[in-house]
Amino acid sequence: MASDASYVEYICEQAGLGLRLSPKKMFGEYALYVEGKVVALVCDNHLYMKPTDAGRALLQAVDAQPPYPGAKPHYRVGAELDDRELLKRIFLATADALPRPKAKAVKRAPRKASR
C-alpha cells in the first residue's frame, strides 16, 4: 500500500522544520531529507527514522522494524508524532548523527574509439 501525500505533509508540518525538511516520492513511498540527508522513510503511512543513538535517546519507546521487506530495521515513530517539539528534535538529532551524503561522480562523455 502506498503512502498518502497528505500523511507526508502532516509529518512535515508537525516537524516544524520548514524548507529544511523535504520529502521525495520513491516507488509509491517517501524518503524524508533534512538538509540533503535521508533521515526517515514513510512506508504504508508509517514514519520510520534511520537508527542512530541520538534518535534512540529521544524516543519514548524504540520499536525497530524494517520499513519494507528486505530493509534494515528503522525506528518506527508512533505517539511522538503528536509532540511537535519532540518530533523536531528527533529529526534534527538524527540528521546531526548521520554522515553527509557522498558527492555523486561526474559523468563523462564516452570517448570515441580511435582507428
Question: Brief description of this entry?
Answer:
With 115 residues, the chain is α+β, with helices and mostly antiparallel strands. It has helices spanning 5-15, 53-58, 84-97, and strands at 21-26, 29-34, 37-43, 46-49, 64-65, 74-77.
Written overview of the protein:
The protein has about 120 residues and is an alpha+beta fold. The protein has one domain (about 5-95): Yope Regulator, Chain: A (2-Layer Sandwich). It is built from 3 helices and 6 strands. It has helices at about 5-15, 55-60, 85-95; strands spanning about 20-25, 30-35, 35-45, 45-50, 65, 75. The chain has a 6-stranded antiparallel sheet. It is elongated. The N and C termini lie far apart (about 55 Å). The mean pLDDT is about 90.
Estimated structural class: alpha+beta
**Number of distinct helices:** 3
Multimerization status:
single chain
Pattern of helices and strands? HEEEEHEEH
Under CATH at level 1, the class stands as Alpha Beta
Strand composition percent? 25-35%
What's the end-to-end separation, in Å? 55 Å
Strand count: 6
- What's the CATH topology label? Yope Regulator, Chain: A
Identify low-pLDDT runs: none
Question: How many structural domains in the coordinates?
Answer: 1
The best one-word shape is elongated
What value does the Rg take, in angstroms? 17 Å
Biggest beta-sheet profile = 6 strands, antiparallel
Query: Superfamily at the CATH H level?
Result: YgaC/TfoX-N like chaperone
Strand arrangement, major sheet: 1-2-3-4-6-5
| Helix share, percent | 25-40%
Mean pLDDT: 92
Give me the CATH architecture, please: 2-Layer Sandwich
